Amino acid sequence: MRIETYIKELLYDYNCVVVPNFGAFLAHGKSAELDTTTNTLIPPTKIVSFNAQLSKNDGLLVSHIA
What we know:
26% helix
């Protein structure tokens, strides 16, 4: 299995997944919205960003892979 699969799995339950000596993927929750012009409900989502400064191993990804 490729590492992005593990990162994707962890981002469902955690807001931050650190890849040691590389950086961290951060998930920011976005609330559901109602579009009044089309009367549709937009479901809640997560927006993923990357921060290269957070590279210290927290053990989450390594433990998940093991």
